[in-house]
Amino acid sequence: FSRDQIHNFAAGPSPLPEPVLEKAAKGLLNYDGTGIGVCELSHRGKEFKAIIEGAEANLRKLLQVPDDYAVLFSQGGGTTQFSSVFLNLLAARRLKHADETNYAPPTVDYVVTGSWSSKAYQEAVRLSIPPAPGAQPFAEPRIAATTKPAKFTTLPKADEYDFSKDAAYVYYCENETINGVEFPGPDSQSPYAFPFDRVPDGVPIVADYSSSFLSRPIPQIERHAIIYAGAQKNLGPPGVTIVIVRKDLLVDTTEAMKLGGIPAVPIQSEFKTLADNKSLYNTPPVFSIYVSALVLEYLLAERGGIAGIAEVNRAKGDALYAALDEAEAKGKLRVVVQEKDARSLMNITFVIEGEGREKEFLDGAEARGFRQLKGHRSVGGIRASLYNAVTLESVKALAEYIKAF
Ligand code: PLP
After folding, report:
1. Predicted complex ipTM
2. Engineering a disulfide at 103: which of 128, 261, 278, 298 sits with its beta carbon 3.0 to 4.6 angstroms away?
3. Candidates 4, 67, 166, 233; catalytic one
4. Same domain membership, residue 313 and residue 285
5. What is the pLDDT at residue 185?
6. How far, CA to CA in Å, does 273 sit from each of 77, 235, 267, 400?
7. What is the pLDDT of residues 378-387, one digit of tens each?
């Protein structure tokens, strides 16, 4: 097959824009006439410095990241951030209460709306385990709202959240990649919008944006303490994770550890170390950052910035959901997320009705060049991921197939 015969609906790692890949292939061999490939150049040399600084500047421009936030290029994927946000925010909390001799473990509030926020919550539970049996735990993780009883097919409504007054932080996942639920977009008046106003003043808000990063503007970015996202959906190849952190949360975790009451923080997880070293504390994932830098340039120059991207993503989602709703009315399939305001524009999940029909659907899709449509192994069914590099034409072609099936 050639690339133009294939429509790739992968959930991640996801497709990348072809002009970017062509440029990256050249850079891998010979970066900018240096005679050296980009992965063979020092990460402390002037060439890579320009790449990473350009990437940061373009990211700030695209998402309008305020100046009082640091943009970090970290490693270990989204999964490492499940631990890192806990560790850094617990350290920040400990330093804020430095004078307390009877330091009480804080609550940490999780909004659990799918597989990924569940995993993040479980990591907080694990890291809270006391240093010795019977000792005080490091934190008290709580579930502030969950849609688990509804099998993660919807989102909580504003009055269903129960935030604690003085949590070390509140955590949510903006788009649940496996289940296909996403908080409604910027400025939404929907009852499913994330209830920023209900979070007590001063409590830091953390958002996992891994699978919706750069798909549209981030609502109320300044209401967040930390926003993080693995690159491998809308930004670049796997290997780099962007962490946007409010600068007052870049704390010295060693000082916090000395006070006691928090777990040990590996140096790689400390946001301050990463920020102080401009994301070059250790060897960074050079190739992933390079391709991400090219994607950011491309999004600004060719895709009309974040407004242009959001418009196309809306059109893609509308086209596919319209076809699915039509097929559902005919009894052919079932859309997993029924509530329109809770539907993801990035990961669209559905189940084909009828014995043996799912295989038929997937075989037919394969024959027509539609790839990687099988749902996540934990939930089954079908999942079409419509990340930025998936074109409206590909989505329309899939919509036609669904209507005809
Ligand atoms: N959070 C979300 C929303 C994800 O979709 C994923 C992975 O797909 C992760 C976290 C975990 O990321 P990683 O695989 O980079 O550790």
Report:
1. 0.99
2. 261
3. 233
4. no
5. 79
6. 18, 24, 7, 51
7. 999 999 999 9
